[in-house]
Amino acid sequence: MILELQNIVKDFGGLRAVAKVSFTVKAGEILGIIGPNGSGKSTLFNLISRHIPLSSGRVIFDGRDISNAPTHLCSRIGLSRTFQIPSPFTRMTVLENLLAVYSPSPLPKMRIKALEILEMLKLSRLANERADSCSGGQLKLLEIGRALMTDPKMLLLDECVAGVNPVLRQEIVALLQTLRAKGLTILLIEHDMDWVRQLCDRLIVMHQGELIAQGSFEEVTKNAIVLEAYLGA
Ligand SMILES: Nc1ncnc2c1ncn2[C@@H]1O[C@H](COP(=O)(O)OP(=O)(O)OP(=O)(O)O)[C@@H](O)[C@H]1O
Ligand SMILES: [Mg+2]
Fold this sequence. Notes:
Layout: E1 3-12, E2 15-25, E3 30-34, H1 41-48, E4 56-61, E5 64-65, H2 71-76, E6 79-81, H3 94-99, H4 107-120, H5 136-148, E7 154-158, H6 166-181, E8 185-189, H7 193-199, E9 202-207, E10 210-215, H8 217-222, H9 224-231
Parallel strand pairs: 3-8, 3-9, 6-7, 7-8
Antiparallel strand pairs: 1-2, 1-4, 4-5, 9-10
The chain binds adenosine-5'-triphosphate (ATP) and magnesium ion.
């Protein structure tokens, strides 16, 4: 297994946003997290990627306890993520945004990689445009591109296709499947259940900070507690 969460908790003052969540992610797996707005999904990502400190619990990535690790260490050891709300360097170009990601590789090599990634994401045309001229959907794609620049072992995708058009959403399914076939592990948050069904081997369901169910798409979508809390009858 590549990621293990042990009883992780996050309190924001009196609000318990993540309540003793434990689960594991196997190497090469695509695991989906679903759940209502405000159920703690993005907070969980922020805890895993060390953008906010844990209140308690442990995060083990690739055999290493990263519970107190600094954020920048995560990408260096192969854990990369996108944000639900993209925050590019607005006055830099799309290409420069990719090149600004930390990498031990020399710049010419990074540039080749960045151009390949832009091609994959159908953003080549925008390479030299400023990021603040991108549409909402294009910024989502740029987020994925930035996350791929570090050649991660594991990718956390927070609603990476929200606002992306249907054709491109399908292409991203294919892209993520290809990356997984090459060994990438993916943990993703998404509300679009059809997209989730196509991609995920397994699902985790969150509700009010708690993990309320896990299993295959079929198991989870038939679960009475999940229907009540999230999907509707
Ligand atoms: N920095 C913060 N300070 C205080 N409360 C926060 C903070 N971040 C998140 N919360 C609260 O934690 C809860 C979980 O928020 P979170 O963003 O994790 O939800 P989510 O499941 O990702 O929802 P959505 O599907 O809408 O993206 C919410 O009640 C939110 O208001
Ligand atoms: Mg969220």
